[in-house]
Amino acid sequence: MTCRLWPALFCLSLFSAPFLAAETLHEERSLYRDITVTQEGNRRCLVFNVHRGDRNQTCMNTADPERLVFEYAKMTFAGLLLNPNPKNILIAGLGGGSLPSTLTKLYPDAKIDVIEIDQAVVNVAERFFDFEETENVKVAVNDARVFVKRAGLLEQRYDFVILDAFTGDYIPEHLLTEEFLEEVRAIMSPDAVLVANTFSTSRFYDHESVTYQKVFGEFFNFKLPSSGNRIIIARDAALPPRGELNAVARSLAPRVEAFGVPLLEYPNRLSTRVDWDMSRRALTDQYSPSNLLRDN
Amino acid sequence: MNAKQARRPNNQGPQAIPSLLVVSAAFVSGFCIMTIEMLGARIMAPYFGGSLSVWGSILTVFMLALACGYLIGGKLSARRPSLFNYAFFFLAAAALSLPIIFLADEIMRPIFLAVEDPRYGSLLASLFLYFLPTTILGMISPYSVRLLVENSDHSGQKAGLLFFVSTLGSAAGTLGTSFYLVLWFEVNEIVFGTAAALALIGMVLMIAGTQRGHANDL
Q1: Torsion angle in degrees (nearest 10) through CA of A172, A176, A181, A183
Q2: Which of A127, A215, A291, B213 is most buried when burial is the number of CB atoms within 10 A of its CB?
Q3: Residues paired with A233 in a beta bridge
């Protein structure tokens, strides 16, 4: 009732303050970006380049840390439909570490290699997001391109590869070329699956799709109306029929439920429909103006 | 005609070094230096990644090469400077840019295999790929100044004009490459374009030098 006497905006902020006001827990300028950790209520987020209005990289529910917050993180688990029992996992891009943390809980025996270019991100993930390196979870502070190339030389093989190295505002262009994807394909075992978290907008979408198709042939495109991301799920072999995906989803769904992943909904969302302009040029080491294409 | 100019009869009238040509050449060399430098990171990323240290390696090698080039070019300009020598720098820079196109993988692969730390790997690779052409391009600046300068009174002014023009060329090369050229062409096509531009300038200078005949000795 006193509210009417106050300017509307102030009134609004008074009531919503406990939900909107994000407290800054930590700020750090690393070699690559400004890192901020915020907390609002139970929601703790890792934000890159907050001043440029970047979106959250990753968020965690501190009251229920197991439960994944972001749709795209959950969507990544759709890759398990193609390989429900990964033993050697490679993740490019750590963020808050929610993917490796969840995967190691799901598959305690799996070896997980995480590549992160920024040591500061590793420190922040350990300090604020319960991420920890263990016997089976190792972090390499390195460029993903360098790591993958060397892994290829050492003839290492992974059966589950996640590419999650793109921040909201900058694409590492050398991680989105035909040559790079070929190098990734070379370290994938025959039954391996590749899951790439990427964008679903602009002309860039066409170029990226054409590039993936050139290397892997038909792939699953996974988009949800609730997320601006799209997930590419690819493998060397032909894609499995939907019946098989549904069967895997039914057996795996109870195990991922605790993490908030609605796996049963996913098989019908995986699409092989070509919804991009196939005449676009594939991105290569010679031609990869990804960031310019994204803005156009 | 004052006394100072009288001592340099060859620089008068039709025999004078065509300064527009020298200034244009300096612009092109400035453009090419930055075009190659901007592409340097792109060329090395497949082997050494896109981390800050890769940029550090490239910039270090370019600075070192330019420093050497300035020193050598300055030294050479003191001994019978001629349009022929000047033209030769452009042709040599064009030729030495070609390994960036044709030998990049052959140069980077063994370095990648031998050096595990991408910092030193990229430093070594930049040295092999960019040092020689950039040194030659660096030699062009002081040599251009010498060709333009007719007497010591205005040497600072000529040097200023030359740095202005070649640095303007560098700015144009940086912007043009990173904003547009990479969107229109492949990396190798752009490097080839810079080599072709350098070679073209070299040939034009060679012809200009021939026309001046034996009068090209200052």
Answers
A1: -30
A2: A215
A3: A195, A220
Closest Cα in chain B to A149: B47
Report how far residue B70's alpha carbon sits from residue B51's, in angstroms, rounded to the nearest whole number.
29
Number of CB pairs < 8 Å for A and B? 61
Mutate to test the interface with B, among A174, A181, A202, A283 (most CBs of B within 10 A): A174
CB contact under 8 A, B42 and A142: no
Write down the pLDDT at residue A279: 94
| A236 in contact with B, Cβ within 8 Å | no
Q: Is B50–A286 a contact, with Cβ atoms under 8 angstroms apart?
A: no
Q: Using CB atoms, which residue from B49, B186, B187 is nearest to A143?
A: B49
Query: Tokens 């010679």 — which residue?
Result: A286
Look-up of token digits 């062409």: B185
Give the residue numbers of A annotated as catalytic, written as ranges: 164
Q: Where are the domains of chain A?
A: 71-295
Task: Return all residues near B189 (Cβ < 8 A) that are at least 6 apart.
Answer: A286
Look up tokens 């595990």; give the residue.
Answer: B116
Closest-CA distance, A225 to chain B, in angstroms, reads 31
Where do the domains of chain B lie? 18-211
The mean pLDDT value of chain A amounts to 89
In a mutagenesis test of the B interface, which of A117, A146, A180, A295 is the best target, namely the one with the most B β-carbons within 10 Å?
A: A146
Q: What is the DSSP string of A114-157?
A: EEES-HHHHHHHHHHS-----SSEEEEES-HHHHHHHHHHTT--
- The candidate with the shortest Cα–Cα distance to A142, out of A171, A169, A113, A167, is A113
pLDDT exceeds 50 at position A90: yes
Q: List pLDDT tens digits, range A105-143.
A: 999 999 999 999 999 999 999 999 999 999 999 999 999
Fold observed for domain A71-295: Rossmann fold (3.40.50)
Task: Report the alpha-carbon distance of residue B179 to residue A295 in Å, rounded.
Answer: 12
Find tokens 């093989």 and name the residue: A157
Task: Classify residue A113 by burial, with Cβ atoms within 10 Å: 0-12, 13-18, 19+.
Answer: buried
Average pLDDT over residues A19-38: 84
For residue B81, give the amino acid letter.
Answer: P
The residue of chain A with its CA nearest to that of B183 is: A289
Residue A205's nearest CA partner among A166, A147, A263, A254 is A166
B18-211 to CATH, choices 1.20.1560.10, 1.20.1250.20, 3.40.50.2000, 3.60.10.10: 1.20.1250.20
What distance in Å separates the CA atoms of residue A193 and residue A23, rounded to the nearest whole number? 39
Contact at CB, B49 and A293, closer than 8 angstroms: no
Report yes or no: A156 at the B interface, CB cutoff 8 Å. no
